[in-house]
Design a protein that fits this description.
The chain is α/β, with parallel strands linked by helices. It has eight helices and eleven strands. The structure holds calcium ion (CA).
């Protein structure tokens, strides 16, 4: 269950969506204007915001920037335009995800769940241990056989994301979305380059992998080399 704020000026869509989400056990509040929406979004009581781009008082992208100026609350943008420029504009403005209108409640709910999982993954404080690798999400630190690894922020996030899913093959697209927040794709060289840096710091190579195993065209997984 999530506390959801709907900012949508179309009364029919707003009421129908609020009703369906509430029926599924979510705590829903809604508003028709950007200015009221921004105030509520930054109140600290909302888990996720669903923001319509076409609002009567303020452009949705501007409203999003107002929210981002003071809050990291996850925002899913609803847009009627399904084109690459529009999607890029949405992410540049600080959106976490987007849905194309018309969208189903099922689809929106799945996007909300994915965002909530991400938020939980970042917040969870329990240390992860895989073989001699230990990862402390709170401290943003990782050690290998007791020695501190000197990782960049992205290297750490990549390692932590893989370590939270040990043995599971993860696609580059998922990594781009989760670590680089680029669900619309991007250069998957980004992932390759960071994986090679991470490997180097773990003292292994692609030819002789220990923790990090990649499968061309499929993805990458983190495993305990002793298992
Ligand atoms: Ca609208």
């Amino acid at each position: 269950m999530a506390s959801i704020l709907l900012i949508e000026d179309d009364q029919r869509i707003r009421q129908a969506l609020a009703k369906r989400l509430a029926e599924r056990g979510h705590d829903v509040e809604s508003t028709a204007t950007a200015m009221d929406g921004v105030q509520r979004a930054v109140s600290g009581t909302v888990d996720v915001v669903v923001l319509d781009l076409g609002l009567p008082d303020v452009d949705g992208a501007d409203a999003l920037q107002m929210i981002r100026a003071v809050s990291e609350v996850p925002v899913i943008v609803a847009t009627a335009r399904d084109d690459q420029d529009e999607i890029v504009r949405i992410f540049d403005a600080g959106a976490d995800d987007y849905v194309i209108k018309p969208y189903s409640t099922d689809h929106l709910e799945a996007r909300i769940r994915a965002l909530m999982r991400r938020a939980v993954a970042v917040e969870s404080g329990s240390e992860i241990t895989i073989g001699e690798l230990a990862i402390d999400p709170d401290a943003h630190e990782a050690t290998l056989a007791g020695s501190m690894l000197d990782l960049s922020a992205k290297e750490f996030e990549l390692l932590a994301y893989l370590a939270e899913r040990p043995g599971k093959m993860i696609g580059k697209r998922e990594l781009l979305a989760a670590v680089w927040r680029q669900p619309y794709g991007g250069a998957d060289k980004t992932v390759d380059v960071h994986l090679s840096w991470l490997r180097k710091k773990l003292g292994e190579t692609a030819a002789e992998p220990r923790y990090i195993h990649t499968k061309r065209g499929v993805g990458v997984k983190l495993v305990d080399p002793a298992s």
